Amino acid sequence: MNTVNDALHEKLRALEAIFLQKLPGKCEEIVSALENLAASPDDTGLQHDLHRYLHTMAGSAGTFGFEALGRQARVYESRLKPWVKDGVMPAQEFEQFRQQLRGYMQAVIAGETPDAVPQPEDNDDILQSHEPARENRLIYLVDQDAEQQQAISSQLQHFGFEVVWIAHPRDLARAVGARRPDAIVIELSFPDDQQAGAEEIRRLEQLKRFRIPTIFISASPTFTSRMLAVRAHGDGYFTKPVDVVGLTDRIEGLLRRGSHTGYRVMIIDDDVVTAHYYSTVLRNAGMEVHLLHDPAQVLAAISDFRPELMLMDIYMPGCSGIELSKLIRQDNSYVDIPIVFLSGEVDPERQLEAVRAGADDFIAKPVRSEYLVSSVISRAERYRTLRALIMRDGLTGLLNHSAIKERLQSEMLQAQRNRSPLALAMIDLDSFKKINDSYGHATGDQVLRTLSRLLQQRLRRTDIVGRYGGEEFAVIFPDTSALKARAVLDEVRQAFGRISQHAENGSFHVTFSAGIADLEQASDADALFEVADAAMYVSKQAGRNRITLA
Questions:
Q1: How far is CA 158 from CA 205, 255, 290, 372, 496, in A?
Q2: Integer Cα distance of 500 and 491 in angstroms
Q3: DSSP run (H or E) holding 264
Q4: Cβ–Cβ < 8 Å for 510, 496
C-alpha cells in the first residue's frame, strides 16, 4: 500500500476511534430519548427525536465498521417508524420495544456487544483538515536540438512550469529515478536512432512499472510517426514548430486527468463524527469539503462556498433534509446544484419523496469509501461540465461576460459582509486589430488563448478570470487591495510581453494595458466595471503596456 493510502487509512482508523469514544454517549442519548418518550408517548417531538437518533446510529455505526450495531439500530428504527408516522404509540408493543432497546443500548455502553473493542487514546486533532498542497509542475524536455529546447523551455516557463532539459533519451531513466516529473515532452527521433524517443518511453514504463504522461514532438507529420507515438502510449503529438499554447493546454489536461482537486462538496449532517469521516474520505480524493451542522445556515454557506455538490441526511434537527432540499431549490441560483442524500433511509417511498423534493441521487448508509468518492465525482464532474458549457467562453475556456459579472456581484457581497478588500482589473490587448489585420484572425485567436492561459497559470488560485468580450479580459482579486492586485498583475504583464507569438509570416510580441479599481471606488458590480474600464483607457492613452489604478 502506498504512503497516501497509508495516511488515509490512518486518518480513518483515528476517526473510527473517535466514534467508539463517543459511542457510549450516543447510546445514553438514545436511552434518554427512549425514557422521555415512555413518559410522554403522545409527544410527536419526542417520537421524532428517538427516530432520528436511531436513524443516525444505523448509518454511522456501519460506516465506522460496527456492522452488527448498525443492523440492530436499523431494526429498532424500522419498528419505531410506523408508530411515528401514525403518531400513535401502542402501549404494550412499545413497552416491549422499550425494554429490548434499553437493554441493548446498555449492553453497548458496557462493551458487551460483538462490535465493542478497547477504547483508544483521544484523537480529536484528526478532525483538523488541511488543504492539499499545490501540485508540482515539473516537465522533462528530452531533445538534442538546443535552439528548439530553448524556445520551448522559455515559453513553458512563462506559463509557470519548471522545465528540465535532458539532451538524450538514455539519460531519462536516471532523471526519473532521482525525481519523477509530472510530464515528459520528448523528441520522437534522434540522429543515432529514428525511434529512440518512443523506444525509451516503452523501456521506462517496463522498468519503472508506472506511466508518466508523455507528449511526443517531431518534424514528421506522417501516419507512421504518429503510430510510433501511439504504440509508445504517447498522450499527445505535436509537429514542429511546436504550438506552445497548444502544448500547454495538452499538459494541463493530462495533469488534471484523474485529479479531482477543486470539486467543492458541502456536507450537511448533524452527526459530527460521521460527517468528518466522509469529509476525510473526500478530501483525500482531492476535493474541497465544507461541513455544515446547522441547516439554518445553508443559504449563507452556499453563497460563500459555492458547492458543486451537496451531501445531506434526510433526518436532522430543526428540519428534514427533504424540507431543506425544497428550500434550496426555491432559489433560482441553486436549482442546478446536485443534491445527494446520504442517509440510512431504506423506505422506497421516502426516497422517492426526496427525489421529488429536488434530490439527484440517494446513497444508503453505510457506504464504502470508494463508492462514495465515485458517486460524488460523477455527479460533480457532470455539473462542472454542464456549467462550463453555459458559463465558459468557447475560445479561451474562461468565464464568459455574463458569468464574470455574476461572480463579481457575488464576490462583492461576500467582501462587504466580511469587510474585506476586493479589486477588479480590466485588461485589453494593445493594437489587437492590427494583429488580426497583419497575421489573420486565427493568429489573433492564438494570442487570446495565450493570454488566457497565462492569466490562469500565473495568477493565484483564488483569483477569478473571465473574458469580458473581444480582446478584453476581467480579473477579480478577492481579499486583495488594488495596490496588491497591481503588483500581481504587473508580473503577468511583463511575462506576457516576453512571449513570442508565432504566425506563418513571422514572430511578434504583444502587450496589454489594464486598469484596476476596488470597493472604495464603487459599491455595485456595474459601477466597479465602469471605474476599472475607465482606468484601463487611461493606460491606453498614456502609451499602452501599463497598469493604472483608479
A1: 30, 18, 34, 39, 8
A2: 17
A3: strand 264-268
A4: yes
Structure confidence at residue 2 as a pLDDT band (50, 70, 90): low
The predicted model scores a pTM of: 0.51
pLDDT tens by residue, 141-187:
999 888 888 878 877 877 778 899 998 998 998 888 888 899 999 99
- C-alpha 485 chain-centroid distance: 25
Alpha-carbon distance of 345 to 77, in angstroms, equals 10
d(CA 205, CA 203): 5
Could you tell me if 102 and 138 are in contact, meaning their C-beta atoms sit under 8 angstroms apart?
no
Q: Closest Cα partner for 236 from 171, 185, 193?
A: 185
Q: Which three cell numbers stand for residue 215?
A: 507528449
User: What are the angstrom distances between the C-alpha of 96 and each of 46, 175, 458?
Assistant: 18, 72, 68
DSSP letter string, 482-513: HHHHHHHHHHHHHHHHHSPEEETTEEE---EE
* pLDDT tens column, 103-145: 888 888 877 654 443 333 333 333 333 333 344 579 999 998 8
Tell me, rounded to whole angstroms, the distance of Cα 546 from its chain centroid: 34
Identify the bridge partners of residue 239 per DSSP, sorted by sequence position: 218
- For 95, half-sphere exposure in the C-beta direction (CA atoms, 13 angstrom radius) is 2
Half-sphere exposure of 121 (CA within 13 A, CB side): 2
Residues in the chain: 550
- How far is Cα 121 from Cα 261, in angstroms, rounded to an integer? 32
Cell numbers at residue 63, please?
Answer: 460506516
Cis peptide before 241 (omega within 30 of 0): yes
| Ordered strands of the 214-218 beta sheet | 162-166, 138-142, 183-187, 214-218, 236-239
Q: Across-strand partners of 214?
A: 184
Cis (ω within 30 of 0) for the bond into 348? no
Q: Give dist(CA 376, CA 11) in Å, integer.
A: 20
Q: Are 43 and 87 in contact (CB under 8 A)?
A: no
Work out the angle at residue 447's Cα, subtended by the Cα atoms of residues 444 and 448, and round it to the nearest 5 degrees: 90
The tally of CA atoms less than 13 A away on the side-chain side of residue 243 is 17
d(Cα 97, Cα 76) in Å, to the nearest integer?
8
105 and 27 Cβ atoms separated by less than 8 Å: yes
Instruction: Give me the numbers of helices (H) and strands (E) for the chain, helices first please.
Output: 19, 17
Q: Tell me what the pLDDT averaged over the chain comes to.
A: 84
Is residue 423 a contact partner of residue 490, using CB atoms and an 8 Å limit?
no
Q: What is the DSSP string of 402-455?
A: HHHHHHHHHHHHHHHHHT--EEEEEEEETTHHHHHHHH-HHHHHHHHHHHHHHH
Burial of 100 (0-12, 13-18, 19+ CB in 10 A): middle
Whether 237 contacts 216, CB under 8 Å: yes
